[in-house]
Description:
Blueprint: H1 2-9, H2 15-28, H3 33-47, H4 53-63, H5 70-113, H6 117-145, H7 149-163, H8 168-189, H9 195-198, H10 200-203, H11 224-237, H12 245-256, H13 262-274, H14 282-314, H15 318-323, H16 325-353, H17 357-372, H18 377-394
Helix pairs in contact: 2-5, 3-5, 4-5, 5-14, 6-13, 6-16, 6-17, 6-18, 7-8, 7-16, 8-16, 11-14, 12-16, 13-14, 17-18
Amino acid sequence: MEHEGAARERTPGTVGEVARLFLKLGTLAFGGPAAHIAMMDDEVVRKRGWLTRERFLDLLGATNLIPGPNSTEMAIHLGFLRAGLRGLLVAGACFILPAMTITGILAWAYVRYGALPEVFWLLYGVKPVIIAIVVQALWGFATKAVKGPLTGVVGGVIVALAFLGWDEILLLFVGGVTVMLGTPLERRWRPTTTAAAMSGAVLGVGAPASAAAVVVGAGAPVSLWALTGLFLKVGSVLYGSGYVLLAFLRADLVQRWGWLTDQQLMDAIAVGQFTPGPVFTTATFIGYIVAGVPGALLATLGIFFPSFVFVAASSPLIPRIRRSAWAGDFLDGVNVASLGLMATVTWQLGRAALVDWITVSLGLVAIVLVCSLRVNSAWLVLGGAVVGLGVQLFR
């Protein structure tokens, strides 16, 4: 059976079949990158036999070594493997397009009706659920990213420096280089420990309220060049999940330029969670709020364009990259730095979302549901919206 799958892998496919598959996945793939990748495995390995599972895992490993959204890059890799350069472009575009369209429509409705009481109460219920989903994701990432004392300490230091206002890209670089250089030394004396025990170094940080204060910019004039450049930068350097997006966007859009408020940023992340496909289509929503249709198109292009370039460039290098100990250690440092940035922003946005006993209770219930019962995040977001509307009706 495995031999048959390998034989089919060598058979070129058509652009049409690539387009049909990834339009389907882009329309139905709720639940975040892990769920997206599981669906792709089911479709291309088990059902269609386009490639072996070993080859699929090779591609998955490669996506963790380059910046950008993992599930989108997996789609691009699979399209390239099946139908060459045209398949690469079509797979990525078809996976992104449904979510971009849905998010654009929701952004239009948000701008037009966002001030209505019903929309306020809907988002009132959604935001605590989003915080719970991010907390669950943080814990899952911590158990994998924090691999020992060195990465645990680096993660804690990154949290502290992020609260002090250090640049996010610099923190990622510092984390990567520190772990890359320190790991050979750590291996000489590393004590026995578990990743879960070290996770508290990152997640258990209690920052004072004053450190999390938000300083919104005076409101710089909106520039399409600056907007596109921001999302190109984010798409070019962002490791980890779409949740890390919070840290990058808040620093520029909320604090530096004042183009968004914290509430609008949370609303954008909520929409990205509720819609299918890549969480990074949050860029579409933000671009529309800031600069209408041109902003939505340019922000979306900016954040996804680097992924196409990275996949095309890295595909021939995958075997050598995966064998490099230095590259693996650098990636470990980048991952734990990303985790620290996520923890910092989650603390700050949680203070804005958990405003009374109802939202606190909703957040706690959502954490139980997502951690214990593994309820799909899309259903949780929908449930939060229903609770918010219910509070509005019966208050």
